[in-house]
Amino acid sequence: MAVKIEVVESDHDKIRVRMKGVQRSYANALRRLAMNYVPTMAIDEVVVLENSSVIYDEMIAHRLGLVPLKTDLSRYVLPEDCDCENELGCKKCRVLLVLDTESTKPKTVYSGDLVSEDPEVCPTSATIPIAKLPQGRKIKLEAYAKLGRGLSHAKWQAVSVSVLKEVDGTSDFELFLESVGSLTAADIFREAADSLRRNLELIASKTKELK
Questions:
Q1: SS3 for 12?
Q2: Last residue of a domain, one of 153, 175, 197
Q3: Which single residue of 34, 45, 63, 181 could bond 192 by disulfide (Cβ 3.0 to 4.6 Å)?
Q4: pTM for this structure?
């Protein structure tokens, strides 16, 4: 049976793809790759310069790590693929975001208060709460974001939903993906498909080397 891929629904954050003539194992591999293998940007290192809030440094760093960041896969490489050999990375594999805020009256610090050295790599939403500051308190820090995969940590997962189901009890399948906002849903599907292709090609080439 010829393979047929049909996009049933697609917008920035969601995509529904119907697959005909595709074995379940391959269709499920796409689901898993979309969830665990598509790279996205996330804050991974935080240097706290000043923190007079009531929240521990580690808790602030944890919250920052879970803030989804807009990602451009054409401009950055995974740290393990970068030739800089710098512990904190370089312009090709990391982005610096700065948070420097002080309260003259009680206020909430939001993700939108982060200032990125690359305007294209910023929080997908400006209204994610980070901390509440009483009057006269301050948070000043440097946060370093890098590409990673959901396989390593949930903060790098590109999707919030990745579901595969049979269609009308047939051998056809429907894959539904919902992006966290770092990448478009269509880009996530394409990246997962490319990843599957590359892995299959690698397996085929290694198999040919067997004696």
A1: coil
A2: 153
A3: 34
A4: 0.91
Question: What is the sign of the dihedral through the CA atoms of 124, 128, 130 and 135?
Answer: positive
Burial, 98: exposed, middle or buried (Cβ in 10 Å; 0-12, 13-18, 19+)?
Answer: middle
Query: Quick one: 74 and 130 in the same domain?
Result: yes
Residue 1 has pLDDT above 70, yes or no: no
Question: What are the Cα distances from residue 154, in Å, to 48, 121, 160, 170?
Answer: 23, 19, 10, 33
How many domains is the chain built from?
Answer: 2
Digit-coded pLDDT (tens) for 69-81: 999 999 999 999 9
Instruction: For residues 186 and 116, give the distance between their C-alpha atoms in angstroms, rounded to a whole number.
Output: 25
At 171 the pLDDT is 78
The range of the structural domain enclosing residue 33 comes to 4-38+158-209
User: Are residue 16 and residue 92 in the same domain, yes or no?
Assistant: no
Average pLDDT (156-163) is 97
Checking if the pLDDT of 86 tops 90, the result is no
- State how far the Cα of 202 lies from the Cα of 20, in Å rounded to an integer: 25
Write out the H or E segment, with its range, that includes residue 27.
helix 24-36
Are 183 and 148 found together in one domain? no
Q: Is the pLDDT of residue 210 over 80?
A: no
List the CATH number of the domain containing 55: 2.170.120.12
Nearest to 63 by CA among 71, 76, 51, 72: 51
